[in-house]
Every structure is written in structure tokens, then in C-alpha cells.
Amino acid sequence: MLLSDRVTGTVLVVLGGLAAWSGSRLPAVPGQDVGPAAFPMLIGFGLVICGVLIAFGIGHSFEVPEEEEAPAGRSSFYGLRILVPPALLLFYVLAAEPLGFLPTAAIIVLVGALVLGARLILALPIALIAPVLVHLAFYKLLRVPLPAGILPAPW
Amino acid sequence: MNDLLEAVRLVAAPDVMIAIVASAIYGLVVGSLPGLSATMATALLVPVTFWLSPIAAIATIITASAMAIFSGDIPGCLLRIPGTPASAAYTDEAYAMTRKGQAETALGAGLWFSAIGGIVGTLSLVLMAPLLAEMALSFSTFEYFWLAFLGLMCATLVARSSPIKAIASMLLGLLVSCIGMENPAGTPRFTFGLTDLLGGIEPIPALVGVFAVSEVMRAMVTPEPPKLPDRKFGSILAGQWKLTKKYQWPMWRGNFIGVIIGVLPGAGADMAAWVSYAMSKKFSKEPEKFGTGHPEGLVEAGASNNASLASGWVPSLLFGIPGDTITAIAIGVLYMKGLNPGPTLFTERASSMYALYLIFILANIIMIPLGILMIRLASQVLRAPRAGIMPVILLLCAVGAYATGNNLFSVLMVGAFGILGFVMDRNGYPVAALVLGIVMGTMVEQNFITSLIKSDGDVLPFFERPVSAVLATMTIGALLWPLGVWIWNRTGGRRLPAQGAAE
To answer: What is the pLDDT of residue A146?
Structure first.
């Protein structure tokens, strides 16, 4: 996800413009000069200025380039693996209530470990043990109401 | 005196003692794993603190962060991969020493001078906090506005990155903090009709997303770090006393710079380490030896980053303005436990404050034996497969975020901030500035709008009171500093390191 400064700068300009515009439409507090609109507008203008400067490459000389770390010779799908963690979190949001904590957590850990290149002999035990430990710690000790779902914990 | 005895009693309670030892081990292990930073270690501790007594909760945060900052030196020294960003400044130097066969001295220096730095930082906290508390009682919204703004500006002076991108990150954080109805007028802003956004974005899910989830995402596309060969270490602390005597001045300078940077709101341990390493090289009698495995910079920067950790609590405790991302988390915990930051904390809850000092000192003392143990076990701990750890971290992110508010929306937020943090970091936008913007946004706006209403829209009163004039000058100085460095470089002066920015 390496984007050029032009792209990120433009995104910031658009975002800042939107923030300032929608900020200016907020209703004012009757009888006050400064209301809820002032701060978002200020930030919006600031973002627009920063975005323009970044798009023109000002301040670039301060940056220390990061070593390119993507290993060569992988298919273009390799980079899509970064989307696995957010997707697993989304899965948690959707599945925790109907499935229950233990199965959901086991699936998350198993998929995560396999994508990271673990063999089944490692991934399976971790996927079985970690959810139980986390459930014990958070449900029993910290009293977090984790959903029971189809597989309620025996404790 | 009574307060001190009460504090000893508070700290000696069994639950506090267990909390200190357990969080010390946790901090050492997490800090030593590459990619898992001290901030992340602390953020994942927050749900645990819900359940602890106030003193034990603070003890876990203090101990875990101090240990993690030290133990970040271990993989830096042995594998040339900094365990935490605060160790990055001197990783090359420490690794060069390891290659020269002086791994014990390098690790020992990290441990010994970290502990000294931590204790000096604590003493500065003990001395400075009550003095500043007197002053803070007379602060009005103008001073608070400038202090918070100064904190935000200092957060943008991040080493090795474009100051404009840092400011943009900070503004993005402020924009995120606008979401919801937590503003002086109570108007819902940027909620897009979602009731979940009415309460605003909580800092903890944002922090966990930016620091932990984005790290798991990075692990997905980076090769696994090399395994550490099994090795026997000689005596870790041998020769450290000699180093202490030989490099007395650099050590004190490191402590001093660390304390100053820590006290500045917004600038933390990473900054302290970079500045101190640069200073050490500049003032050394043998600057040509730097980078070839010379302990001098290690001494100075190692002391500096731990000193800044303790003094970073000064602005947090007095004004509720975080000194760095770790204390940003700590402030949330303080509020939750009824120890609301502010100058009155030192008069009304004096025993709790003494307890906090004692925990700091205790943590830095037990760091030495536990640290030696950790160094000896390092090759075992670092052998833990990343493919096994990262998914569990992800699970902890989900459960931890859920636990802070008991709603699934925060889990979604963690994922969203994970993506944001990853993309920003990849493109050179410092994420710490984003986080501090989110944490401090409400406070900046509150004091800004209140001040503007008090002054009838006039800007002049922002500069009229003496303290606010000084703070305003510092803030504007921080804003213009990169410009100064740039002009200096352009006009043919010697090339100044960009990381000298926070001096």
C-alpha cells in the first residue's frame, strides 16, 4: 500500500475540504460567535494546506526512506494478505453473537496462524487452547460478558 | 510523613505486589518480541486494569511500560531488529558490539543505564511535580489551551519523518476527535446518522487498532525475523561500573535530556533516545568510533529513554496532558480509577502519589534481576513462532476492545484504525501524532472555544498572561523549528540531523 505523496496529499485536501464544508453547515449556538463549527473548519483548512504541501513534495527531505520489505517473486495476491486481520475482526463482529465466543475465536486464531504460514501441527493446538485461556481470563476474572452462542463454556 | 507510610502500606498490599511482578514479566516478554511495542503492551493491559484496585492498576501500567522499553533493546542488540521504537536509535550500535563479541556489555549497558535513567526520571518527577502543581493552580483555559497545543506540536517533531506529514497526522487525529457530541455546544458532528458514533471515538480502540492490528497486518507481508542462535552469556553486569565511571558525563546528559523531553507534553521515549544518541555523538571525544560498537551512545540514549518515561508522567498527572502515547493510555486509566489528573491530585491524594513514586522506583530496581533473567532466556522467548503469537494478539485486540465498552462497534473501530494505521505508517505518516490528536482533541477544543468565548473572539488575550505567552512562544517555536532546520541546511550550514528537532 505504498502510495505516492501526490495521492495521499490529494486525499488530505479532499478530506480537509469536506470537513471544513460540513463543519460550516453545523448549526450555531444562538447568541455566540464561536460555536461547534469553528474547530472542524480550522482543522479542515489546516488539512487542506498540509495536503497541498505534501502533494508538492515539501518536507520530503526530512524523511528517511524505509527499506522495501516485500519479498520478491510473490504473486500479486500476496499483498492482499494484509486484509486478513481486519477481515477476521469483521468476522468476529458478525459471528460472535450467533456462534458464540469460543468457536469464533478458534476460527480466528486458526485462520490467522495458517495465513502466517504455521503448519497444522502448530495452528490447531493454539486455536484450541488460546480461546479457552482468553475466555477464562476475560469471562471469569474480568467479568466481561462474552457471548455464549452455540457452545457455552462449561464454567 | 504519614502520607509516605500510607503509601508504603498501599504498595506493600499483596495484590499490588503480584500486579507488579506479573506485569514486569509481561512487559519484558512483549517488549522483547519484535514488532510488539511498549505502547501496544500497555494498551492491551487496559481491560485488565478495570478489575484491579487503583494502585494495582497504575502499578501494572508503570511496570509493564518500563520493562518493555528496556527489553526492546534485547532483539535490537542480538538480531538488529528493535523490539520497540524507543530502541531504534541505537540498534545498529548495539548490534555492532554484539558482532565484536561484546553482547554482554551491550545488553548490560542497556539494562544498567535503563534502570539508572528510570530512577533519575522518578526523582525528577518527585521534585518537579509539587512545584509545578503550585503553578498549575493558577492556570486558566488560555494556559491549558497552549499546553495541549504545545503537546500536539511536540508530537509532530518525530524523528525521521516529514514534519508536514506529522502535522497532517495530528490534524487527522483532531478531526477524528470531533466525531460525536462531546464538544462545548453538544452538537452531534460527523456522526453520519450512526448512533454508535454519537459518543465519539474512544481512544483505546483507536490505539489498539493503530499499534496492534496494524502490526499484525505488517507481519502478514514481512518475512519472519531470523531465529536467534543459542548462546551462553557471560556476566551481564561485569564492567558496567567501569562504564558508569568512564561515561559519567554522557550518562547524566542522557538523564537530563530524557527528563526534559519527557516533561514536554507530547514528546516521549523514542524522541529522547534519538536526540540523546545524536547529542552523544556530537559531544563525544571520539565521535569516529560511533557506529562501530562503541558503548558511549548506548549509555546516553539508554539512560535517556527510560528517564523520559518517568518524567512523562509530570504533564499527565498535573494537567491531564499526555507526555507520550503510553501516558495517554495511563490518563484514561487514572480517570477510570477516580484519580482524576490535576494539581489537586497532589494535595488531596498525596498518599496515592507517593505510592506511584514508590512503584516507579521498585519497578526500576526489580528490572535488574528480572532483566538479567530475560536476557538469559531471550533465545528461548524469541524462538516463539510469530505465526502462533500474532493471531492470539489479534484475538486479544478484539476482546480487549469489546471489554472497554461492551459493544461490538469498538471491535469494528479497531479494525478500521488498524487499516488506517497501516496505510499511514507505510506512507511515512507518524501514527503517534494521530493518536495524540485523538486523545487530546476534545481538550484542545474545549479550552480553545471557552477561551475564545471569554475573550469575545479576540486573539490577543491568548498572549497576554505571562505563562500563556511563554507557552505560546514555545508552541510557535516547535511549529517553526523544521523550517529553521531546512533553511539552515539550504544556506550551506553543516547538515543538522532532522531528529535534533526537539532540543
So the answer is: 86
Sorted by where each begins, the domain ranges of chain B are 2-228+248-502
DSSP A77: T
Q: Among all chains, which residue has been given the C-alpha cell 503469537?
A: B389
Contact between residue B193 and residue B457 where contact means Cβ atoms under 8 Å apart: no
CB B42: neighbour CB atoms within 10 A? Answer: 28
Q: Which three cell numbers stand for residue B309?
A: 518515561
Amino acid at B74: I
pTM: 0.87
Domain locations in chain A? 5-62, 78-141
Contact A59 B482 (CB under 8 A): yes
How far CA B75 is from CA of A54, A140, B218, B343, B502, in Å, comes to 35, 35, 18, 40, 27
The pLDDT tens digits for B85-135 are: 778 888 888 888 888 888 888 888 889 998 999 999 999 988 888 888 888
CB proximity list for B458: less than 8 A, separation 6 or greater: none
Say how far apart CA B433 and CA B174 lie, in whole Å: 10
Q: From the centroid of its chain, how far is CA B348?
A: 27
**Do residue A142 and residue B489 have CB atoms under 8 angstroms apart?**
no
Among B113, B75, B70, smallest CA distance to B95 is for: B75
Degrees to nearest 5, angle at CA B419 with B399 and A106: 35
CA distance B85 to B269: 9
Q: Is B189 helix (H, G, I), strand (E, B) or coil?
A: strand
**Which residues have a Cβ under 8 Å from the Cβ of A56 and sit 6 or more positions away?**
A9
Pairwise CA distance, residues B415 & B468, whole Å: 40
Q: With contact defined as beta carbons under 8 Å apart, do A33 and A76 qualify?
A: no
Q: Please report which residue ranges of chain A form alpha helices under DSSP H.
A: 5-24, 38-55, 84-99, 101-115, 120-135
Instruction: Determine contact: A68 vs chain B, CB below 8 A.
Output: no
From B489's Cα to the closest Cα of chain A, the distance in A is 10
For residue A43, what is the nearest residue in chain B, using CA coordinates?
B171
CB contact under 8 A, B453 and A32: yes
* Residues in B touching A71 (Cβ below 8 Å): 223
Contact with chain B for residue A144, Cβ under 8 A: yes
